Amino acid sequence: MANTIVIKLGGTEGVDFSAICADAAELLRQGRQLVFVHGGSAEANALGQALGKPPKFITSPSGYTSRYTDRQTLEIFLMAVNGKVNSLLTEQLQSLGVNAFGLCGLDGRLMLAARKDAIQSIENGKRKIIRDDFTGKIEHVEAGLLEMLLAAGCLPVIAPVAVSAKGEALNVDADRAAAMVAVALKAETLVLLTAAPGLMEKFPDESTLIHTLPQARLSAALEMAQGRMKKKVLGAEEALQGGVEKVIIADGRTEKPISAALAGAGTLIQ
Amino acid sequence: MANTIVIKLGGTEGVDFSAICADAAELLRQGRQLVFVHGGSAEANALGQALGKPPKFITSPSGYTSRYTDRQTLEIFLMAVNGKVNSLLTEQLQSLGVNAFGLCGLDGRLMLAARKDAIQSIENGKRKIIRDDFTGKIEHVEAGLLEMLLAAGCLPVIAPVAVSAKGEALNVDADRAAAMVAVALKAETLVLLTAAPGLMEKFPDESTLIHTLPQARLSAALEMAQGRMKKKVLGAEEALQGGVEKVIIADGRTEKPISAALAGAGTLIQ
Amino acid sequence: MNTVTCTECEAEITLTDNVEVGEIIVCPECGVDLEVTGLNPAVVQLAPMEQEDWGE
Amino acid sequence: MNTVTCTECEAEITLTDNVEVGEIIVCPECGVDLEVTGLNPAVVQLAPMEQEDWGE
Ligand SMILES: [Zn+2]
Ligand SMILES: [Zn+2]
């Protein structure tokens, strides 16, 4: 839908959820159609710590770092992401008079993902394969469900959980989930809110903020991006390739973060 | 909808979720329309214990015992009930090929409740009022949302969380939530699955199982019922008064608990 | 010494020194339950009725 | 002593005594990565490719 804006809210990187929610309420009054996708890895890590099950990261032989999501970690992830972040965000929007509707990829098979079949790790100098990992890569988003909720006057609030072909719950990356949702809805704009003013030429020097980036330069930007920003650039690339008109990576710590992004703040990629 | 059956699944009272899910899959193949409502107080208590915030119960001057749900307890309740019980039940149904859709009363304002404004308690011999309690009594169920999900081929799985007029999340009783859902949907049957064979004349003597109970005898049954069973009888009364044809209180620990209840097991109230 | 006026019968009630906000006192004249909602100055209102448990 | 056959080049490979299920060995003939999926009897299969992180 040409009028639709998909907004990804970062976890707890200093991003101001209440400012984002208030801004969303205003944009809805102006007739915009919004969909939220949120993260939650920081909340999941904190809950895991509190329950004596700290997050486990695995570095592969060639240097990729993966969060290892075994069954117990998956259940903690579901409690933190579906039960805390999603429910509290939905509550916050409801208290502002916005008819939010929280859901995740399990619900009505909203987001179908391929389960990662193996992780390589190094233990005591040996290369080993770990197979009980519950992470996935989204392959299909059931746009009809979201369109049904939008038509019912709801603002869908989506948690980064998908369902496998076998019906298992999977931890998925929220930036890339937001990109896949934007593509499925044929959204006009994807806004990735984060705790930085946008993409920077020389991170973390904010004076090197990139204001506009043509799609053709994305692969160069991917080389340049640091840490979590890499996933945002990947998400931006997937969204544009899938037909989304523009992607904005913008600051989620400001007064009216969505409106500011739409008015030109952050990095516009198209 | 005349064909609809609302099923309440008890928390962790020995009720066999996998048998219930398998039975539901079979009933759906036979053309039945189902809605699940689940509990979760035991899961919430366990999570609270693990996080150093054990459940707090308050006894009022005249002897009512209430679970005290302050803000922190509410957040633990949301994690346990929305994030764990609801997500895992939805996952289990999805893995059986049932297109389950998990939601709670916050989502699209599915269940609107009055927030309890005060609890009376006795502390050091003084009678006191506690006002930061987040429990509620359901006043409205938005049937249209459930009908929309049913029409989309989904099995709604509802967590016992409602929204207040101000948009706050509230802990609500699952038996009575199930009754309100059944009334709103004009369901034919409400099945309350529990860890007992049904209502007993002399609890816990199972040989005194009551097979049928006319609606007129419900107030007498309410006097007789013990503990949690009181809420089920209250729920049954609310459902019948609201136009549900029959309520069955039946054993959730058996092979095919729903089919058995429909075939005459448990206590039939009508 | 804190005094309050009963909201039901307008009796003057003297509060004890150790009274707390949130405490329920009984009016000695009419017997109604009053909730102490403030102490400086002292304020009372009709106490909410007792209710059964609503939550899960 | 456990021996296995490379699934790619059919070379006979002798496993060391301390080999574990899940371990990746490299075929000395063709250089492919093989995952040990069983030990009694010893079985290997082509190891899955390394992948970037997928989760949140
Ligand atoms: Zn008085
Ligand atoms: Zn070989």
UniProtKB/TrEMBL annotation, chains A, B:
Residues that span the membrane, as ranges: none
Transition state stabilizer, annotated site positions: K8, K232
Catalysed reactions, semicolon-separated: [amino-group carrier protein]-C-terminal-N-(1,4-dicarboxybutan-1-yl)-L-glutamine + ATP = [amino-group carrier protein]-C-terminal-N-(1-carboxy-5-phosphooxy-5-oxopentan-1-yl)-L-glutamine + ADP
EC number(s) reported in the record: 2.7.2.17
Domain Aspartate/glutamate/uridylate kinase: 3-251
Positions of substrate binding: R67, N171
Any Pfam family matching the protein: AA_kinase
Family: Belongs to the acetylglutamate kinase family. LysZ subfamily.
Function as written in the Swiss-Prot or TrEMBL entry: Catalyzes the phosphorylation of LysW-gamma-alpha-aminoadipate.
Protein name per its UniProtKB record: Putative [LysW]-aminoadipate kinase
Species name: Longilinea arvoryzae
UniProtKB/TrEMBL annotation, chains C, D:
Source superkingdom: Bacteria
Transmembrane segments: none
InterPro entries: LysW (IPR005906)
Protein name: Lysine biosynthesis protein LysW
Species for this entry: Longilinea arvoryzae
Lineage, top ranks: Bacteria, Bacillati, Chloroflexota, Anaerolineae, Anaerolineales
